[in-house]
Amino acid sequence: MNPDLAFLVEVIVGGLLSGVMYTLVAIGFVLIYKTSGVLNFAQGAMVLFAALTFVSLVERGLPFPAAVAATLAVMVVVGLAVERAVLRPLVNQPPITLFMATLGVAYVIEGAAQLAWGTQVHGLDLGIDDTPLEFGGVLVSLFDLFAATVAGLMVALLTLFFRYTRTGLAFRAVADDPLAALNVGLRLPRIWSAVWIAAGIVALVAGLLWGARLGVQFSLSLVVLKALPVLVLGGFDSIAGAIVAGLIVGAAEKLAEVYLGPFVGGGIEGWIAYVAALALLLIRPSGLFGQRSVERA
Amino acid sequence: MTTAIALSAKPRNLSGPVGVAVLLATAFGLVPLVGSDYLFEAILTPFLALALAGLGLNLLTGYAGLLSLGSAAFMAVGAYAAFNLSLRVPGLPLPVSILGAGLVAAAAGLVAGLPALRLRGFYLAVSTLAAQFFVAWALNRIGWLSNDSPSGVINAPRLVVAGLSFEDARGRYLFSLTVVALLTVAAWRLVRSPTGRNLVAIRDQEIAARIVGVKVARTKLLAFALSSFVVGIAGVLWAFAYLRTVEPAGFNLDRSFQILFIVIIGGLGTLRGAFLGAGFIVVLPLALSRLGAVLPGDGFDSGTLEMVQRIVLGALIVAVLIREPAGLAALLDRAGRRLRLPA
């Protein structure tokens, strides 16, 4: 293959794969937003908390599966606690109030995670080499492929769950119309608790993969900032949107960094995704997959 | 963001003309006489700068109901604009360069507010993050903005107005106080003007506002511009009167959240809220470190202190939103009413 073209393909593939990592975080948001209308800014803090707990347990000699199980249990408790202590007293408040409350929750979780486990940087080894594989002149990171597979698996599981289980059906009913769901006898508090637990599990998966990529440290909670443009683009309430938007944002970010970055001094990955998402929204205000009922001007 | 916050315009203890006069007399007359340099430098000057930033954000978030997560970016725009105006226009009087900085920040706010014409709620809040990250990037990468200093660090110009120097700790306090007092009066006039009522109208019922003839799009952009003007000048005070040397990283996302927290804790949609919230935010770390020193054991080390502070702050935000959505300002009102009308 032409080396320039191979490089272009490599950039796009790399971008798509890192986009999958964004999707992974974004899905946690979508789960909660869909069922309770809360944009949970603490999702990033939950990712940090999960990764930090897991790493600290492993470093204290716990075997891998036991550490996963223990962290899972902790995340379930965290999810339940947030839902019970913060969200439930704020039922019926305007969405912006709920959002600001999750900002407070993010601060508490970040502080607690680092108070409990310390602030030093931990390495996290999932046992997957980051060796590049070559496909016809295109280099692809093995770790990225693994992460993409895990993310794909998780999305598939979530989709099956939503489509074929009673709880999944209840989730969809609540997302569709909370009042009608309440009317037919669905117990909203129980569903909200379940969805926060699900978000905690998604945070654990994202935390393990992101932690293995970046090292487990405070900046892990900033992955939330990578997920937000994905959400804006894909619609806060659509898992399919999160996937497609994640891929678009990942590829656009890498392409811009490689082909546009040198002209403006580099380092543009911090904002280019936001600008790209906004530009797309100006053309298509309901996002890629957002429901039309989403409040927009 | 409920109507209860909006219409709490009853006369209060400290907002009557007498109360304001007493406050101003104390701040201008008594405090400079008795205060120590530590009080001015570590508490009062940052308090004033943050209170002003909170005041600016409150115009946007508290009054107009538009959430912004990019306040620190506008502080940075203000600070760097004032720096460049002083540097590149020799002999420009300081008040003019500060005013110019406010206008530059207002223009930046206007641009950042453009998505408000099509987006609302979370979508808008997230879009303000674009401003936050873009400004930080531009200040780091475009050397001209910081006169090519390494990593974008700038130093304050001399604080001299009409031959009077405000360089020492007391002077910088008085300088900040004067700016904050003037802008607070302006904001007070603004929120009682028809424009101020329009802001509240689009917050409480946008459709109704449109029907009674409020130009919604223009009012939203105006809210962004006015808010950024005030926040930009707060950035000037933060950079020049308080820190004296700043880098772009000083205006990061955490600063934006800090200012949002000031507004939430102090009280959305009240002018006093910004001052109460800022006082709280400035005093909280000092109080916690004192507390750490009193506790048995070897006290908090600085890392622990920072984490404890994060937890306390986060928990307080949640508690305020649940228990007292109108913030410290409402608490104070209630306490004042109890004192005046004993049951």
Topology:
The complex is a heterodimer of chains A (297) and B (343).
Chain A: H1 3-36, H2 43-59, H3 64-87, H4 95-117, E1 132-135, E2 138-141, H5 142-164, H6 166-176, H7 178-183, H8 188-214, H9 223-234, H10 239-264, H11 272-283
Antiparallel strand pairs in A: 1-2
Helix pairs in contact in A: 1-5, 1-6, 1-8, 1-9, 1-10, 2-3, 2-4, 2-8, 3-8, 5-6, 5-8, 9-10, 9-11, 10-11
Chain B: H1 3-6, H2 17-34, H3 37-63, H4 71-88, H5 94-113, H6 121-141, E1 154-155, E2 160-161, E3 164-165, H7 169-192, H8 194-204, H9 206-211, H10 216-243, E4 245-246, H11 253-266, H12 271-294, H13 302-323, H14 327-340
Antiparallel strand pairs in B: 1-4, 2-3
Describe the protein in words.
The complex is a heterodimer of chains A (297) and B (343). By secondary structure, chain A is mainly alpha-helical. Chain A has a domain at 18-221. In chain A, 72% of the residues lie in helices and 3% in strands. Chain A is built from 11 helices and 2 strands. Chain A has helices spanning 3-36, 43-59, 64-87, 95-117, 142-164, 166-176, 178-183, 188-214, 223-234, 239-264, 272-283; strands at 132-135, 138-141. In chain A, strands 1-2 form a two-stranded antiparallel sheet. The longest helix of chain A is centred in the first third of the chain and has 34 residues, at 3-36. With 343 residues, chain B is mostly helical. Chain B has 14 helices and 4 strands. In chain B, helix 3 (37-63) packs across helix 11 and helix 4 (71-88) crosses helix 10 (216-243). The longest helix of chain B is centred in the C-terminal third of the chain and has 28 residues, at 216-243. The radius of gyration of chain B is 20 Å and the shape is globular. At the A-B interface, helix 4, helix 9 and helix 11 of A face helix 6, helix 11 and helix 13 of B.
